[in-house]
């Protein structure tokens, strides 16, 4: 019995050790400006081990996206760094608002020489936001403050009148956090279950900017009439 427990503990330690290893992706999101044909993101291997790097882009509904990584598959040796080129293939996208995709970078470990070593491929998934050439290059705080809030049928509703994706770090209603805030799409409306039943009150939100930093808090009051 003790031998079995020791083997299980060893396996859990190996899983934890492997899951925290792998390459470092040089960013938490990719903002692709429509005036450009391509952009880049770095991948760094801080370990001595060898990794195979596989990269691809998909749409939120898991369909094909108009972007490709180059190279899509390559070997990254220990203590090395490489740059991935992300190329826009030219398929039409809405010119008046941002479009959201997912960039996937998978680190596949080299075959181990030792026996009985558990190895896990690690996939990093980050947002890829295509920003049309006609929009500002960066989203201003004034744009971020344009979100409008109201109470509707027991839920909190947020309206985004801007052409930008607003990625939430947090939303609080009367000091209580809303779970799974995620984002609200351009020119879209999203609803959240209220953490407490209140037809009116104060809402505070913080967003994640283009560089992955958290903004200062924005505040507004909400009611059944909205703003």
Automatic annotation (TrEMBL):
Major location category of this protein: periplasm
Q: Where does the Pili assembly chaperone N-terminal domain start and stop, copy by copy? A: 22-135
Domain of life, per UniProt, equals Bacteria
Q: Which residues form the Pili assembly chaperone C-terminal domain?
A: 158-215
Question: Which segment of the chain is annotated as a signal peptide?
Answer: 1-21
Where does it reside? Periplasm
Q: Which UniProt keywords apply?
A: Chaperone, Immunoglobulin domain, Periplasm, Signal
Gene3D superfamilies in the record: Immunoglobulins
The cross-references to Pfam families, in alphabetical order and at most eight, read: PapD_C, PapD_N
Q: Where are the transmembrane segments?
A: none
Matching entries from SUPFAM superfamilies are given as:
PapD-like, Periplasmic chaperone C-domain
What family classification does the UniProt entry report for this protein? Belongs to the periplasmic pilus chaperone family.
Protein name (record)? Molecular chaperone
